[in-house]
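User: I'm preparing a small set of examples for a lab meeting where we compare how different chains pack in three dimensions. I only have the primary sequence for this one, and I'd like the structure in token form so I can line it up with the others. Please keep the answer compact; I'll paste it straight into my notes.
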Amino acid sequence: MKIDEFVKNIEEEKLQDFLDSTSSQIKATTKVHKVITDTSWIEMIEKSIPYLDNIIRNPRKFIAQEEDILPIEKTKFVTEESIKHLAQNTGLIQDVDEDGMVIPLKLLNVYREETVDLYENRFIKSLVDNLYTFVSDKLKGKVEKSSVNTTSNVTYDGTCKAQNNTVKVSLKLESASKDEIEEANEKEQHLEERIEHIKDVIAAFRSSKFIKNLQGCQPVRSPIRKTNVILKEQNFVKAVELWEYLESNAIKPMSEVTNEEYDCSEDVKKTYDFTFFLQKEALKLHKDSKYDKVKMVKNMDLNILLTNLINDNAMEEREANALVRKKIRSIYAAKRKEEMAINKLFSDFVKDFEGKKNKAIEILK
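Assistant: Understood. Below is the structure token output for the 365-residue chain.
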């Protein structure tokens, strides 16, 4: 009988009788060890670097003006503002000579100096400092490739008692798989080189004249003041996005390791009970078939059979022996093929179950 026909012709009543007379125990567990490495911060920083570079290379500046009233002997520059101030403050005039020359006692001194000490620039300085701290903290953790290790163990013991027959089965299966997460690993290519590049860029930013000129300035903290420049200028818009990303991801580890264990005994018990039934029926089928063949041979008059074979075909002794041996080998080969087919049926059944179980686990993830 073909294997597929054997399975299709199983009687439901017969199967139910078997299950009613069977006691079984099963322990099925699946352990999942996941390593998820977050490299999204690398991509985020890489995308933000050009915008920060634009700001640092072309910083915003303004002219700071300081005013001070000093004695005439300490005055170095007389400006238009000095004269206007003196005209408005005649009390600062010491004397006026006969020619109308005004001799001031004190004059207004105006100092103008170009500076980068703006809120927007201090925001960038604080962002670079935060970026340096963020990357340093990330690199303190171990960098691992993202992967999922799955180990499944099944131990099954069953006993079927029917009339005078007792059939027992013990199964122990273990499967292990390691799958690297391809999407994550593609981003992790040349990971060390990318991180080194980021570190070099941050070091260059920190040593730039722009950042050094802002040393000692009041640092900026959240919430960020939304000035017109920060809201509308594209480089600063991207800088704010990076600031917010660093704040929300500061405490996340570089690689997160999780261990999960599932007990799926109840879900697979019926499947293994059915497998036990298949084994028992296959064994019975093989035993009955073997008994019938032996009985047929025992009841056969071999002397008459061989006599007719030799007389009808005019065979010599050597040819008759060769023919009989060939037939016997053919019969045993067919027998082994049948046994292999039964074993394959059981193996395919188990593999199909394992595949469905793994798919179910993937969905639950």
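A couple of notes for your slides: The chain has 13 helices and eight strands. The chain has two domains: 3-35+160-180+264-364, 37-146+183-256.

User: Perfect, thanks.
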